[in-house]
Amino acid sequence: MMDQGNFLMNINSQEFDRTHLWHPYTSMTNPLPVYEVESAHGARLRLADGRELIDGMSSWWAAIHGYNHPVLNQAAEQQLQKMAHVMFGGITHEPAVTLARTLIELTPAPLDRIFLCDSGSVSVEVSIKMAMQYWQAKGVKDKTRMLTVRGGYHGDTFGAMAVCDPVSGMHSLFHAILPQHFFAPLISCGFYEPWNDTCLDPFRELLQKNHKKIAAVILEPVVQGAGGMRFYHPRFLTEARKLCDHYETLLILDEIATGFGRTGELFGCDHAGISPDIMCLGKALTGGYMTLAATLTTAKVAEVISSGDPGLLMHGPTFMGNPLACAVAQASLTLLTSSSWQKNVKTIETILKKELHSCRQHPAVADVRVLGAIGVVEMKNPVDVATIQQQCVDRGVWIRPFGKLLYIMPPYIISADDLHHLCSVITEVVTDIL
Ligand SMILES: Cc1ncc(COP(=O)(O)O)c(C=O)c1O
Prior knowledge:
By secondary structure, the protein is α/β, with parallel strands linked by helices. The protein has helices spanning 4-10, 13-20, 58-61, 70-82, 94-106, 120-137, 158-161, 171-174, 201-210, 234-246, 299-307, 323-337, 341-356, 385-394, 416-433, and strands at residues 37-41, 44-47, 52-55, 111-117, 145-149, 182-184, 214-219, 223-224, 230-231, 250-254, 278-281, 293-298, 365-371, 374-379, 397-398, 405-408. The protein has a seven-stranded mixed β-sheet, with helices on both faces. A four-stranded mixed β-sheet has the order 1-2-3-15. Strands 13-14-16 form a three-stranded antiparallel β-sheet, with helices on one face. Strand 2 and strand 3 (52-55) form a beta hairpin. Helix 4 runs antiparallel to helix 12, helix 5 (94-106) packs parallel to helix 12 and helix 13 packs parallel to helix 15 (416-433). The structure holds pyridoxal-5'-phosphate.
């Protein structure tokens, strides 16, 4: 009889993966299919069986420059010659300092105090801690809760999950352990609709009634991503900023998905011309090379936290400020700001608007919407992810639908031909759903 070790060595990698590796949001006993990627270049993923797929996902918003970029490769290789990692406790290094300088330059003033952390979810945890510690340090002990809107997504850790949409974010499953926050209804005024002041009413009322308990408002600016791919009116942000100031509540903007050009502006909040008290960045920060996130705040917030008890921010992950990730992030930001990203994103937007438009005619389609380099086809009913993925892969395209949504956010460097193909495959697949 073969022992367990030998058995595991002998099963092929697909079978091993299916039986031993947990993938995101899928069952361990009846998992969704996975496709083995052997390499990736530009806007293409190459499967182990030799097929090439046009990437419609940028690996969940992250790979904005495409894959295997020579500039980012070089940054990683050069940094590797010096050190891959060193602890950030009691030590600093040039990659972290340079990246921090760049982030201060790029983000709206007065954000200029930076906490580097591991992932988007962790940066949201840190932002919530900052907001709570801010009020504790000021001696305002009751301001411990968050206010947000329905339809949001901020990550999978407990603090982040507690501010995700309470229904699609599965609050019921973790109810016993999740902190309770305030949720205003979905923002009813769309990005392209004329502004309607009544859209603010429920949010304003919640804040007015509960501001003494609310440490911060947390929002994804302009685009709500994994909670439903909704685009809302920038004026909501402008008004939310004013209300936060009026009711003495901090404003946290989660720019993890929207940051670095995806919506057509460098940051989602640039559509509204406002700046938050705390900003979360992640995903495209390293051009999708490795995990790194940042929580930025103002001198005012940082000084209050540092003046209170215990006089420090209570967070400090092992891989904080990882030099390899910082070096690649710096290279990615230099690449972005020296490229014509705005023009590229605009071109993608124009093509998506033109080519996804015809999906609207199909009776199974509820809505088609495009903003920046994000294209969404919302169906009336949930789609079968495995079937749609198979149909797309067979036609040379990589997407990952969820719920009722087929959506794409390709790398900014995608060619017009590849984008046309991506759109025509989505249109075909949508037609097949009928
Ligand atoms: C807006 C937003 N916030 C937070 C997160 C969590 O980031 P991460 O998956 O890196 O933990 C995501 C991820 O999709 C996101 O879209």
